[in-house]
Amino acid sequence: MKRVKLVVAYDGTAYHGWQIQPGAPTIEGELNRALGTLLNEEIRVIGASRTDAGVHALCNVAVFDTNTCIPAEKIAYALNQRLPEDIRIQASEEVTPDFHPRRCKSRKTYEYRILNTRFPLPTKRLYAHFTYVPLNIERMKQAACYLTGEHDFKSFSSAAAVVESTVRTVHQLTVEKEQDEIIIRVCGNGFLYNMVRIIAGTLMEVGRGSMEPDHIKEILEMGERSAAGPTAPACGLTLVKYEFL
Amino acid sequence: MKRVKLVVAYDGTAYHGWQIQPGAPTIEGELNRALGTLLNEEIRVIGASRTDAGVHALCNVAVFDTNTCIPAEKIAYALNQRLPEDIRIQASEEVTPDFHPRRCKSRKTYEYRILNTRFPLPTKRLYAHFTYVPLNIERMKQAACYLTGEHDFKSFSSAAAVVESTVRTVHQLTVEKEQDEIIIRVCGNGFLYNMVRIIAGTLMEVGRGSMEPDHIKEILEMGERSAAGPTAPACGLTLVKYEFL
Q1: How many CA atoms within 13 Å lie on the side-chain side of B238?
Q2: In this complex, do A122 and B9 lie within 8 Å of one another by their Cβ atoms?
Q3: Above pLDDT 90, what percent of chain A?
Q4: Using beta carbons and an 8 Å cutoff, which residues of A are at the interface with B?
Q5: How many CB atoms lie within 10 A of CB B233?
Q6: CA–CA separation, B11 vs B125, rounded Å?
Q7: Which residues neighbour B40 within 8 Å (Cβ) at sequence distance 6 or greater?
């Protein structure tokens, strides 16, 4: 028996998120199915980040246990031949049997992309959220400053999830313009449910002028979901980096 | 009666190219249909560049004649509501009745994108051609030099099309690395059938080392399609700029 770690990239457009659910295509479901046919065992992967429906990833992580004699490094190649083209393993390697991707200290980086043009661009529609309302990036940068560091992010979390603590550390939060796109890049030790999308939705409110940058302080203090801006659509969000510390 | 010019962006993935054909979705067909329902007239657009199946565009151009009293500038907005989300008008304006996009002097720029990584990246699969074979960009740049300027590009044209002259001018041809992608950017006064994709396929041969950069000179001299490299796949190609001179 060995434990294998996979680095998984996917286009989330066609999936109901990472987590397996009956009757709906999910990343986890596709991985279990493809691994089952490849290894001729029943496999259940453990995912690092359970991304939502429509969210993309360049480097999510999954581990599984197997009795196969196929070398761990070769599994990426063989598995890719059995996966749909919108899911591709980027690397596979053996890890110690106690490695659990959700119990390790880690640092994740997400990018939220906003296409800020007069009209939508079809070739960007799947990977960026479009808005024609002009966004002031300087205001968004000012607002972002209030969110870096350790805070109680309760206001930036969807009510659905119950967690022990809503305190998280945002190591870095940048807002950059790249041609027609505004890219919000957030790096942190962990994120609450919908946290990055609510941060994006709130920074957009600031960018369009309907909220002052320093109002972010009050939103944090209030500790209520309704204080923050809307949850920005899933398509703009991509998990771009996953580091285990 | 007035003539209206449209700037059209599209994701070519789902289409059998620009040119209308019975029983298959095409960009031209979708434009005629949407304009017909919007303006309540039978409309036949004239396209500037009849891109192939699977090729994308940020700014193709089409014109049409109409009796509508809707101001030309407003047509973009109204038309977008009637088009599928993978086609979006970027601008609409009235032009003189003699403006014909294929008879004007123009300069077009195409980008051919190659994802050169160990494994395919799902979020790039629709807009870049993937190859895991390492490509040497310096060799590709050297080869590109032989293709700029006025040449008989007969070797870089698919036999299918019959044209008066196969002489074209490539104003600029650059090869750049942008993260994991190699971008071939070609600007010219006109292109033969499949010319950019054959240039891309040939530069890839040079990049992987199976052809010397200066062999391009001989390919041009031979004037035979079989002398050049393969036609690179459509998905990597995007029409990015269209200037009327």
Answers
A1: 24
A2: yes
A3: 95
A4: 9-11, 56, 58, 76, 80, 85-91, 118-123, 125-127, 238
A5: 18
A6: 12
A7: none
Structure tokens at A168: 């998280």
Cβ distance of A127 and B122 shorter than 8 Å = no
How far lies A210's CA from each of A177, A206, B195, B199, B221, in Å? Answer: 20, 6, 50, 50, 63
Report how far residue A238's alpha carbon sits from residue A130's, in angstroms, rounded to the nearest whole number. Answer: 15
Whether B122 sits inside 8 A of A11 (CB atoms) is: yes
Q: What amino acid is encoded at B187 in this protein? A: C
Per-residue pLDDT of B78-90, as tens digits, reads 999 999 999 999 9
Q: Is residue A228 helix, strand or coil?
A: coil
Amino acid at B148: T
A194: Cβ contacts below 8 Å, ≥ 6 apart: A52, A156, A157, A158, A231
Mean pLDDT calculated for residue range B29-56 = 97
List of residues 6+ apart from B90 with CB closer than 8 A = A118, A119, A121, B7, B8, B9, B58, B59, B76
Among residues A232, A206, A226, which one has the least CA distance to residue A147? A206
**Contact A201/A225 with Cβ under 8 angstroms?**
no
Cβ–Cβ under 8 Å, residues B131 and B117: no
Q: What is the pLDDT of residues A117-141, one digit of tens each?
A: 999 999 999 999 999 999 999 999 9
In 3-state terms, what secondary structure has residue A79? helix
A118 CB neighbour count, 10 Å cutoff: 11
